[in-house]
Amino acid sequence: MTQAIDATTHHHTHATFDKLKCKECGTEYELQAKHVCEMCFGPVEVTYDYDALRQRVSRETIEAGPNSIWRYRPFLPVQTDNPIDVGTGMTPLVNARRLARQLGLKKLYIKNDAVNMPTLSFKDRVVSVALTRARELGFSTVSCASTGNLANSTAAIAAHAGLDCCVFIPADLEAGKVLGTLIYNPTVMAVKGNYDQVNRLCSEVANTHGWGFVNINLRPYYSEGSKTLGFEVAEQLGWQLPDHIVAPLASGSLFTKIHKGFQEFIKVGLVDDKSVRFSGAQAEGCSPIASAFREGRDFITPVKPNTIAKSIAIGNPADGVYALDVARKTNGNIESVNDAEIIDGIKLLAETEGIFTETAGGTTIAVLKKLVEAGKIDPDETTVAYITGNGLKTQEAVQGYIGEPLTIEPKLDAFERALERSHTLGRLEWQQVLV
Ligand SMILES: *Cc1c(COP(=O)(O)O)cnc(C)c1O
Ligand SMILES: [Zn+2]
């Protein structure tokens, strides 16, 4: 793999990433398309030259960069000065005053990746990095095992970059997620099985077809993209870290990489050292990490998912033990909520902040509420809740749980009568009048 060898000659390039290193046994590898250690089968991770980073990067150099994740390029595992930039990242950090008041918190922010570009989920971050790296490693066909959002991102960004694309999804995904992939015209394999079965199939295809699977053989590069969710929050808070974060857990990767992002900013002196508490959110119908946390176990027992929160329905989470470790060592928590609570979470965020999130975001808000009510988030803590996806993609989840339009004749008196009734009746009663 000549491209991998090029990538190691970083002394002559702008690269600040060094090598791949096993998270378990520490064995080091060249920067190739590899995700599992040959010695112990542990996951491998990208390492950086932090001394070089400290000298090269400052708040000013970052602020002068593009208005996208690529302002943090020296912290990302790519060499090129021309990454695939489709405007991913730098999503709003919303001061959520009304939701904070409702929950009894003093300072709450929503990191709103429901409006991330180009496909309205945080997955655009990891895919922008993975496909930029895939191109550097010489792949012409890219692929993924997806719970929905990843297929949207991979198909869209591959289209932009002119890469061939074949994505794998479970056959029972929400219509919006399927359509939001097909529109880019990739090959779509709808597998009759759950995500964990899709993932197993893709591991075999990766071994036989030589494709770049963003979350399998390119996973060490892909997962680094999630650090930008940590970087941006630190920068948007005025180069400070929050006290507590709440984020959803599927494989657990996003959660652990936000932590890595904060640690890296501390290491190179961009923010003051501070302990940030990390709390994770799962859906009860797929909560292997929350169960292990609750039971004090340091291993994950896989489950068969059954929840409306399909985007985070991974029964055998690859980074589960590392997510457990982050929650425990930061004095955080990992909680789960049921499907009814998830729907309430979606509605609560919409009604208080005007943000329509998908089921994963509903899970996060419901867990946030649960943790505050249990006294596990202090009202004085500056808290950030990560909203990772858009509600327009999972409309079926809330169908039947929201109001209806007041259908009227195009006449002023019809409007006045309808308005009168809408004032005198609660929304639920009004629905009963209609039927
Ligand atoms: C994939 C996904 C996650 C979680 O991702 P992991 O890194 O696998 O934990 C969270 N939210 C949404 C909307 C997702 O699509
Ligand atoms: Zn190893």
Automatic annotation (TrEMBL):
Pfam families in alphabetical order: PALP
Domain Tryptophan synthase beta chain-like PALP: 87-389
GO molecular function, one term: L-serine ammonia-lyase activity
Chain positions found as N6-(pyridoxal phosphate)lysine: K123
Class in the EC hierarchy, top level: lyase
Lineage top rank: taxon: Bacteria
Isomerase listed as a keyword: no
Species this protein is from: Zarconia navalis LEGE 11467
This protein's record includes keyword Lyase: yes
Similarity remark: Belongs to the threonine synthase family.
Enzyme Commission number(s): 4.2.3.1
Known cofactor(s): pyridoxal 5'-phosphate
Annotated InterPro entries: Ser/Thr_Dehydratase, Thr_synthase-like, TrpB-like_PALP, TrpB-like_PALP_sf
Keyword vocabulary terms for this entry: Lyase, Pyridoxal phosphate
GO process terms (BP): isoleucine biosynthetic process; L-serine catabolic process; L-threonine catabolic process; threonine biosynthetic process
Protein name: Threonine synthase
